[in-house]
Design goal:
21 helices; alpha+beta; about 600 residues
């Protein structure tokens, strides 16, 4: 995707040593005139190269690599061809061809990216011409594999607002109406001693003692006990999240765990507690062989167990791989629908959404629920956060959505480092999986079905995904809160929300209409789901031209026009009331009312 031309490169104070100057001299570096170089970003190498563009054939140009990005600009035609790729997006760098390879542009580099594109560059076959660029790219794309820091720790960006202050756990629990006579806040995990992948502040049943919590933790995988995610202010039903019980092949029982689930059920008088196990039944049974399992009827008599049939991280990884094969670089029009169906991607989206709808519906009807998968940090996070998005309009605001991600994904230990592989060269790692991408896709599906219900727009979702990979911000680094704390992420890196909240106008949905009590139930059927083309196929030039909706553009223009008229109206009212300050005071209220009447009238949907 083309990048906007911006300010010339300015070397940071860190880059003024004589050795670096000498190396720059030898590489004959020129200023990066077309790229915004970030504070803390350092130039490493420039190279004449050929970009094998899948849309425009081979393009000659210059590639520049910094400690943050790969930037390419063509030099051989009037039509600009640029690439601006954060190095964190790269999952694999390979050499293409050898010294004896025949054929034009057969010798070079092949780069696999995490954001649905691949890049190929060709060089002249002479004197190991690719060795330097390959080694530098490999080193800076995978800094953790080379004992180096991720760029987020080198960045010196400054923003007025500190995005790390967006989520304050106690503030969020108070907003929900907690603590109260049924639920209490516990600091038992303040040193991560109960569970090292949970946050320090947890909400648990009022009647559960600290000793109860310790006993329950011994019977839950990774000690991830059932804790409160969301509280329904009207009917007092709750969403609890946890990991699987450690039942094992012998069908072990734990009286403390059984009693604890009864306390959750009794808190609002739920007759039967519903336990949503995200896994397919067969997988849950298979987990018994490794010491896991599920809540059996005999042990948990006041609970109903529902399997949601959502597949594991390995199935999702393969599904996305198949999707990438059919969307990049070219879309095969003739077999498009059957090809898309064969990836099963939308089928997985459907199952995740369908599970979240069941959770939201049960809670809305007054029954408390417990949600878990195996470890409670992948499918569980998808289900709780989507159900909360359906139930609570606050999370559908720009700020509230940031709180939702910080709470349900970041603080509760979704393994971002393992699932994304930040700075790690091991591209075949079996822990990698697009679980968070899948969640954002589900959110996008909801915004399509309810275009006026969300304060934020599609751009926000794309920017979040881009910086999930970029390593420019500390927000998505590491696997859990305790790891972020020990690496001093809040002090040493910038939050993504600092960037977002520095100019919120870019991320606002002009069609947004606040509705505080509305529960959203999206239709999770294949007929109503669609591929998120403007994300998955955005690198195709044909798609890039279609990205701005003409209706949205026109609506923004109308809103701007409305603001102009309101400003003029205000000026006229002020000039009318100017002669006397007494008159101004007396007339201020009716004037305000008149302005409001105008606003109401102008906001009427067209």
């Amino acid at each position: 995707m083309a990048s906007a031309p911006i300010a010339p490169y300015n070397s940071s104070p860190l880059g003024n040593s004589s050795s670096q100057n000498a190396s720059r001299e030898s590489l004959k570096m020129e200023p990066l005139a077309d790229v915004a170089v970030l504070p803390g970003e350092e130039r490493v190498i420039d190279k004449d190269i050929i970009y094998i563009c899948p849309f425009n054939a081979a393009v000659k140009g210059k590639v520049s690599i910094t400690n943050y990005r790969l930037y390419f600009k063509n030099t051989d035609s009037e039509t600009p061809v640029t690439l601006n790729v954060p190095l964190g997006v790269i999952s694999r760098v390979e050499k293409m061809g050898g010294a004896t390879s025949r054929g034009e542009n057969s010798y070079g580099l092949e780069i696999t990216c995490k954001d649905m594109r691949n890049l190929r560059f060709a060089l002249k076959q002479e004197g190991h011409s690719r060795r330097d660029i390959f080694e530098i790219l490999f080193k800076y794309a995978f800094p953790l594999s080379h004992g180096m820091q991720l760029f987020a720790f080198l960045s010196q960006e400054k923003y007025e607002e500190n995005g790390w202050n967006v989520y304050e756990p106690m503030e969020e629990y108070r907003r929900q109406g907690l603590p109260n006579s049924e639920w209490r806040v516990t600091f038992i995990n303040k040193n991560y001693e109960l569970c090292d992948t949970y946050p320090t502040i947890l909400v648990v049943p009022y009647k559960a003692t600290e000793e109860d919590l310790r006993r329950v933790s011994t019977f839950r995988s990774r000690c991830r006990i059932p804790v409160l995610s969301w509280f329904h202010k009207e009917n007092h039903a709750v969403i609890m999240r946890c990991s699987q019980p450690l039942v094992g092949m012998s069908g072990k029982r734990n009286k403390d765990d059984e009693r604890y689930l009864d306390l959750i059920r009794e808190a609002n008088g739920t007759i039967k507690l519903t336990i949503y196990d995200a896994r397919p039944n067969v997988n849950a049974v298979a987990n018994k062989a490794t010491g896991g399992g599920y809540e059996g009827d005999d042990a948990y008599q006041n609970a109903e167990l529902v399997f949601l049939d959502i597949h594991n991280i390995h199935v999702m990884r393969e599904s996305l791989k198949k999707l990438k094969d059919i969307v990049y670089p070219n879309v095969e029009e003739s077999h498009w629908l059957s090809s898309l169906e064969s990836t099963h991607w939308l089928e997985h989206i459907k199952l995740v959404l369908s599970g979240a709808i069941q959770v939201a519906d049960k809670v809305s009807s007054g029954s408390s629920v417990v949600v878990h998968c195996s470890d409670g940090w992948d499918r569980t996070a998808q289900l709780t956060s989507l159900a909360m998005l359906m139930l609570d309009s606050y999370y559908r605001t720009l700020r509230g959505f940031q709180v939702l991600l910080e709470k349900e994904w970041i603080s509760f230990g979704h393994k971002f480092a393992s699932r994304i592989g930040h700075g790690d060269k091991n591209h075949a790692d079996q822990d990698r999986s697009p679980i968070f991408l899948q969640f954002i896709d589900c959110v996008w599906q909801m915004t399509k079905q309810f275009p006026t219900a969300f304060e934020f727009n599609e751009r926000l979702l794309v920017v979040i995904l881009d910086h999930l990979y970029s390593c420019r911000f500390g927000t998505f680094l590491y696997n859990c809160e305790s790891a972020r704390e020990s690496n001093n992420v809040r002090m040493k890196t910038v939050s993504l929300w600092s960037l977002i909240n520095s100019d919120t106008s870019l991320y606002i949905n002009p069609f947004y209409t606040p509705e505080s009590s509305r529960v959203l139930y999206p239709v999770a059927s294949m007929r109503h789901l669609e591929l998120w083309v403007t994300y998955y196929i955005r690198w195709n030039p044909r798609i890039q031209h279609q990205q701005q909706s003409p209706v949205e553009q026109r609506y923004k223009e109308l809103l701007a026009l409305r603001d102009q008229y309101l400003k003029k109206l205000e000026e006229l009212q002020l000039s009318d009331s100017a002669p006397s300050s007494t008159h101004l005071t007396n007339s201020s209220t009716p004037n305000a009312a008149t302005a409001n009447q105008h606003i109401t009238h102008l906001q009427t949907p067209f």
